[in-house]
Amino acid sequence: MYITETDHLAQPICAGVYTPHEASFPYSLPYLYFLFPSPSALIGSCLHFTDLILSDTHNMLNPDAIFANNEVCLSDIEIYGFDYDYTLAFYSIHLHSLIFNTAREMLIQQHKYPEGLRSYEYNANFAIRGLHYDVQKGILMKIDAFHYIQLGTIYRGLSPVSDEEILEMYEGTHVPLEQMSDFYGKSSHGNTLKQFMDIFSLPELTLLSCVNDYFMKHNIDFEPVYLYRDVNEVIRDVHVKGILYTAVERDIEKYISHGEKTCRVLTKLINNGKKLFLITNSPFSFVDKGMQYIVGKDWRDLFDIVIVQADKPTFFNDKKKPFRRVNQSSTLLWDKVSKLENGQIYKQGNLYEFLKLTGWIGSKVLYFGDHIYSDLADLTLKHGWRTGAIIPELQYEIKIMNTKEYSRVLLWLQGLTGLLERMQVYADPESQMVLQEWNKERRELREMTKTIFNPQFGSIFRTHHNPTYFSRRLSRFADIYMASLNSLLNYDLHYTFYPRRTPLQHEALLGSDQLSTDKIPFREEVAQNK
Q: Can you tell which superkingdom this protein's organism belongs to (predicted)?
């Protein structure tokens, strides 16, 4: 096949690179590099082709959509259950600042930490949830679904740790299973890495990093394990001692985002004959004040059953702890609970007694929560409930994914990866030098796809190309997931959510693989280059 030096302008090189039915690659690697001395130039020649693709795919993802990991038919669902925090109630950034500042003061006043810590304020843009913290080394990191640390996302304090130091410290990037929490996210024997899964954990992550940073900058010798325990204790006290609850109740408008659509969601379900229940770890007075603000004074009329201070996830596994009734003034009553009634408030209890008293069948129940482990894991694995995860970060990340900037970078990265995969069979020195340049460019593109979401840690859903450890658990424990309950307003209650058929690595993509990276050199190419 003869090609002039201008043919690539008339017919984009993409036609040769990506067409799936081509039996062999029509251009030699040195010739490609002659025409396009950098990956930028090569992929740049495809910009017209790329823009055509973007015109069809740009903004196709709806931030308010519901996404399915497992098939769920809403016609089968008769009962809807909800967590409270970050499910029915959403909080402003002021709440995280409150947790951070209160815990910081407790460190200073109760644990005699340096007063210089007051110079640190909460930074909402530092951490993301789903990160792991090495308790013994004081290292914060992002780990993928295969237990590999993503280099470039490791921090000691507020400073990044070099790849070389991490490779020496962990003897590579793999983290053995015994050093991590178990499948349910609970502590296992000998584990040294703690994963932070819920949104409330972000102030704790940030405070840990700030204290680490202060000690290192002031050359203060410290034991990372003690630091972790102290910070974990004061964060827990902010919740357990009622400091957070009292502050929010005093200034509801400051801390809770008014959710007028929440009432519409609940009303829609009731009007379609669905039963509703609430199971939360928060105390009644806190929930009552919040729900009155969000839904209205008659919010309890919407729910068939309300359970507070449930102590999840123990609630889902314990078989002995009984339910107790709570009156309007939050006083515990002593009479035995033999049935769960509408309009009453119940505390503690356990799921086995809950199912016995209600007679509800797990497959008819859909429960929503924001904590992958505490809210959803046991329900889906042990009890057969359908589960929905509330992931507020979805809206932010999808809006970024819908930008042309991100789409161009991603298409460029996929195209370049496909080229590298096809062309790596060329063993001559000139070709290998070209491949080195392209690999360098690929590393730069991967870094761009990380920093566009968060400069330190990137997306909560992906490392450079693999799903994160967080994503792996999300896909296992949540049948469906969405940014907020408001997404239910976009769907009829007979709607069926179908997961996309994602090809396994040995399966071929049909029709849409022009920009995939699943190409491997054809046998003819391998034979030619042996």
A: Eukaryota
* Residue 6: burial class (beta carbons within 10 Å; 0-12, 13-18, 19+): exposed
d(CA 484, CA 63): 10
> 243 — phi, psi (to 5°)?
-60, -45
Annotated ligand binding at 85? The verdict is yes
DSSP-assigned letters across all residues of 126-192: T--TT-EEETTTTEEE-BBTTSBB-TT--EETTEEPPHHHHHHHTTSSB--GGGS--TTS---TT--
370 known member of a binding site? yes
User: What is the distance of C-alpha 124 from the center of its chain?
Assistant: 16
pLDDT tens profile 195-204: 999 999 999 9
Q: Which residues contact 150 (CB under 8 A, 6 or more apart)?
A: 141, 142, 143, 144, 458, 463, 464
Distance in angstroms (rounded) separating the CA atoms of residues 47 and 43: 7
Percent of the chain with pLDDT over 90: 69
Calpha distance 86→388 (Å, rounded): 13
Instruction: Enter the tokens of residue 180.
Output: 């991590």
Angle of helix 202-217 versus helix 224-240 axis, rounded to 10: 140
Helices 404-423, 47-57: inter-axial angle, 10-degree rounding: 130
Query: Is there a binding annotation on residue 513?
Result: no
Exposed e or buried b per residue across 213-233, where buried means at least 16 C-beta atoms within 10 angstroms of its C-beta: bbbeeeeeeeebeebbebbbe
Q: Kindly state the tokens that stand for 163.
A: 């790849």
Query: Are the C-beta atoms of residues 434 and 422 closer than 8 Å to each other?
Result: no
By the 8 A CB rule, do 151 and 338 touch? no
pLDDT of residue 2: 33
What letter represents residue 429's amino acid? P
What is the secondary structure of 241-261 as a DSSP string? TSHHHHHHHHTHHHHEE--HH
Query: What's 121's DSSP letter?
Result: -
* Contacts of 409 by beta carbon, 8 Å cutoff, 6+ apart: 445, 448, 449, 452
DSSP character for 70? S
User: Which amino acid appears at position 188 of this protein?
Assistant: S
Residue 359's identity, in one-letter code, is G
Contact 103, 234 (CB under 8 A): yes
CATH homologous superfamily of 68-90+258-392 equals HAD superfamily/HAD-like (3.40.50.1000)
Spans of the chain, pLDDT less than 70: 1-59, 182-190, 509-530
Domain ranges across the chain: 7-63+395-460+500-528, 68-90+258-392, 93-249
Rounded Cα distance, 479 and 61, in Å: 19
Residues marked active site are found at: 83, 85
